Amino acid sequence: MTSEGQGEAGPLRAPLETAVREQMTAAMKAGDKVRLGALRLLVAAITNREKELRRPLTDDEIREVAGKEVKKRSESIEAFDAAGRAELAERERAEREVLRDYAPEQLDDAAVDSLVDEAIATTGATSIKEMGKVMGQVMAKAKGKVDGAEVQRRVRERLGA
């Protein structure tokens, strides 16, 4: 092993990244084009993030990247459905399901409501003008486990906007 943290096989990888690459190889051998395509895009996103940070990613950072990819797929599904492109929406749904295995576990509605209520109580927010404080606290605690638009909707409901 060299002093830069690289072995003979290249840079040291987080266990989750190794698992993603192994699943990609398995999908290639099985001829599963949808799974292979989704995993290739995930590996590319991981590589891009590593280049941005100039270091290998941790498992948690890889989960964040996967979460962002899941969100991209969800947004694409909405756009394709609105445009009447059902075949493209179905492909995006299939890719999203593959990527969900690697994304952080999403919080259920009760947990999100609890976080929002707790943040409102902690910050003492009483009006929509204080929404930023509440949002900041909820998003810090829920990091990657909830959609920001959903949190925003619930905060607005509670603060009366």
Structure write-up:
Helix 1 (about 15-30) packs antiparallel against helix 2 and helix 3 (about 60-80) runs antiparallel to helix 4. The chain contains 7 helices and 2 strands. Mean pLDDT is about 90; it is low at about 1-10. The N and C termini lie far apart (about 60 Å). It has 2 domains: about 10-100, Hypothetical Protein Yqey, Chain: A, domain1 (Orthogonal Bundle), CATH 1.10.1510; about 110-160, Orthogonal Bundle (Arc Repressor Mutant, subunit A), CATH 1.10.10. The longest helix has 24 residues, at about 60-80. It has helices spanning about 15-30, 35-55, 60-80, 85-100, 110-125, 130-140, 150-160, and strands at about 5, 10. The chain has about 160 residues and is mainly alpha-helical. The chain has a two-stranded antiparallel ribbon with strand order 1-2.
Shape type = globular
Q: What is the mean pLDDT? A: 89
Task: Tell me the helix content.
Answer: over 70%
CATH architecture label of the largest domain: Orthogonal Bundle
Strand content: under 5%
- Total strands: the figure is 2
Radius of gyration: 19 Å
The ordered string of helix (H) and strand (E) elements is EEHHHHHHH
Look at the structure and name the CATH superfamily of the largest domain: Uncharacterised protein YqeY/AIM41, N-terminal domain
Can you identify the CATH class of the largest domain? Answer: Mainly Alpha
- What is the structural class? mainly alpha
